[in-house]
Write a structure and sequence with these properties.
Shape: globular
Strand content: under 5%
Number of helices: 8
Order of helices and strands: HHHHHHHH
Structural class: mainly alpha
Number of strands: 0
Helix content: over 70%
Number of domains: 1
């Protein structure tokens, strides 16, 4: 099992352009655009969420590499469990690599005073007073969660095609929309905001790590039903 899972991981990693080239390239483009914006913005408003670009592209990369590799891997004798484990290992490797990248950019931004423009792109004030291990953890775990979500979306597409995507999208809107309606009805937005405001980076990392478990499980359960 472990050898076949590693073989699946190596197969995923042959698509280096999608997995290792595209996310940093999009991040670099976002970085340049945000530096230009920082240069013309007032000094007290130079903060951006542009770093999220790399997380979004990792989601797309997960969808693409899972969809491309699944039929070939299974036809070559890999079990569905080995494919799921190998895909998880691929996501963990990408999370570690890109986590280090974002962590280094976080440190460089802090050392340079926001790229000499007092801008906040990677070194958000929320992370300013925490140890380096915590900072690395909070920028790394979302990569794994996003990758697993992308892998799950890909298996939904492979299992049910457009119908699955439509039903899944509608279900997601209904669930999150229903929660929003419920919180509004209970007049609970202040409490929700207060709860999020009290979360530390370490606590947030724990919640993201827990989220990875159902994402991995849902992806595997869907994969078991994919027919080729």
């Amino acid at each position: 099992m472990s050898s076949r899972a590693l073989a699946v991981t190596r197969m995923h990693l042959t698509d280096r352009l999608t997995l290792f080239g595209l996310p940093p390239a999009i991040l670099a483009a976002s970085f340049v655009v945000n530096l230009l914006i920082f240069a013309v913005e007032p000094a007290d408003s130079r903060s951006s969420g542009g770093a999220a670009a790399i997380y979004c592209v990792v989601f797309v990369a997960a969808v693409m590499c899972t969809a491309r590799a699944m039929a070939f891997a299974l036809s070559m004798g890999a079990s569905r469990r080995a494919f799921a484990l190998g895909t998880f290992l691929t996501g963990a490797l990408l999370a570690a690599v890109f986590g280090v990248l974002v962590f280094v950019l976080n440190r460089l931004e802090s050392a340079s005073g926001g790229w000499w423009l007092h801008g906040h792109l990677f070194a958000l004030p929320w992370l300013a007073h925490h140890n380096l291990a915590t900072v690395w953890l909070i920028v790394t775990l979302p990569f794994l969660a996003i990758f697993l979500l992308g892998a799950w979306v890909s298996t939904i597409w492979l299992r049910w095609r457009a119908v699955g995507m439509l039903v899944g999208g509608v279900a997601a809107v209904l669930v999150f929309g229903g929660l929003a309606v419920l919180v509004t009805w209970l007049d609970g937005w202040a409490a929700v905001g207060d709860w999020f405001g009290r979360l530390s980076p370490l606590t947030t990392s724990g919640w993201i790590a827990l989220l990875c478990l159902p994402l991995a499980g849902a992806s595997y359960l869907t994969l078991r039903r994919v027919a080729f």
